Amino acid sequence: MFVTSRHSEYFDCEGAKSVFKILGSVVVATVTLSYSCLLGFGSILLGQLEEDDATVVVSDRQRPWLMGGAYVGSVLGCILATFLAKTFGPSRIMFWHTLPNAIGWALQALATGFWPLMAGRFVCGLACGVCVSSAQIYISEISSPRVRGVLLILPETFATAGLLMCYTLGLLLHWKMVAVVCGLVPNLVIFAGFLRLPESPTWLVSKHRLSAAAESLLFFHGRRYAADSQVQLILAGLEQTKMSVCETLRLMRHSVYLQPVLIIAVQMTILNFSGINAMFGYAVVIFRLARTGINEYHCAMVLAAVRLLCNIGSTTLIDRLGRRVLLSLSGAFCTVSLAVIGAYFYLREQDVQQVQGLHWLPLAGMICTICSYSLGIGPISWVIFGEMLPSSVRELYGSIIIIFWSLTLFTVLQVFPELTALLGNSGTFWLFAGVCAVQVLFAFCVVPETRLRTLEDIHQEHFVGKSKGEAETEGGEI
């Protein structure tokens, strides 16, 4: 949605402060923290409902739905976002989503049975689904190439912080109190933050509120920023690409639009089918089955803490090594460590005596997997989502990809118990290892390098240049 130019970077004065870009990105990233709480809370909920003093009884068939039900709501939320973002703007959507999100957490905190819990998780998923794609787009619009890679990692980093928060609370509190905290803390931060943050400059230009758009750019880039020139660039790009939803979808026949969508969609599939989200969603249950001799909540907290530290560490590597190198290395190390975990479970399934003295191996293997994932696959998947979509169709195509991401995540969480029953724990982890092996090939052969490039340069170099003239026949220049 954001139109930029290789020359527009010169408008960003060296003396302009980045503090408002960072603070704005932090507030936006809290949206993903709230979303990740659904996954972390689901893990401790399933763990505590298995205990003898559980206040709510759910059947084995209902457990996967408690985990995946939130992502059914997320899919519907993403569909609504396609229309709401264009009408109300991403900032306003993220501001007002706090109301239904808080209601959803209240339903979970007050639940006395399966259906109220399910309803609460569905409502939270719906609320978060409406604004999750807007979060990445908003950050990509307010940042510049030299800091965009770091800022686009913030949502993934905050998502991990949400998991760590939930696991820690799950160790200390009953799940009802955890729901209260998850419903209050993130929503208060988002609500207070968006009272001050301006609306997306591109959305303001699309509504012909040019003065407000210039003020929004000045807020994030400093008073010496050439906001009027950037507004004209945005306006020119939007004027060239005024299209209906049907016309926008028809553009996908052309490779300049289809290629980035397919690349991101495949990357999101690998992201979910690498098994990391399933591991975090069922972390308490997995460690309980592995019988590591360590408290399962402590194990889950260790994983989340490692993931958080590595997410932070990835900010120093992403613009030094580049997207492709990190994705390839991440996929290779994940493949090896997941295969080792699968081997542990295989030996355990054959004869438990064979793994005597190796009870530390599942936790060590998962730590290695999380380190590798958090330095590459996890954050970079979201970075390329923010960088590769053509500006003129980013709003609609971004929602479509988030719908796809939610469906694949729901599928993984829903079938994970059936996979372990069908393939065993060993076969399931070997399957995840195979997906990570595909990541190495996909990153090396398909994913373009976007490091330190403007959004326009990315599209011109990797997509428009390869199919020049094709998009122009539909009036869809970038």
TrEMBL record:
> Could you name the Gene Ontology cellular component terms for this entry?
plasma membrane
Q: Which UniProt keywords apply?
A: Cell membrane, Membrane, Sugar transport, Transmembrane, Transmembrane helix, Transport
Q: Which residues form the Major facilitator superfamily (MFS) profile domain?
A: 22-451
Q: Which GO terms describe its molecular function?
A: transmembrane transporter activity
Q: Which PROSITE patterns match?
A: MFS (PS50850), SUGAR_TRANSPORT_2 (PS00217)
What name is this protein filed under? Facilitated trehalose transporter Tret1
Q: Name one Pfam family in it.
A: Sugar_tr
Q: How does it sit in the membrane?
A: Multi-pass membrane protein
Organism, by scientific name, is Amphibalanus amphitrite
Database matches in InterPro entries: MFS_dom (IPR020846), MFS_sugar_transport-like (IPR005828), MFS_trans_sf (IPR036259), MFS_Trehalose_Transporter (IPR050549), Sugar/inositol_transpt (IPR003663), Sugar_transporter_CS (IPR005829)
The main location class comes to membrane
Lineage, top ranks: Eukaryota, Metazoa, Ecdysozoa, Arthropoda, Crustacea
Location(s) in or outside the cell: Cell membrane
Question: Transmembrane ranges?
Answer: 20-45, 65-84, 117-139, 151-172, 178-197, 261-285, 325-347, 359-384, 396-416, 428-447
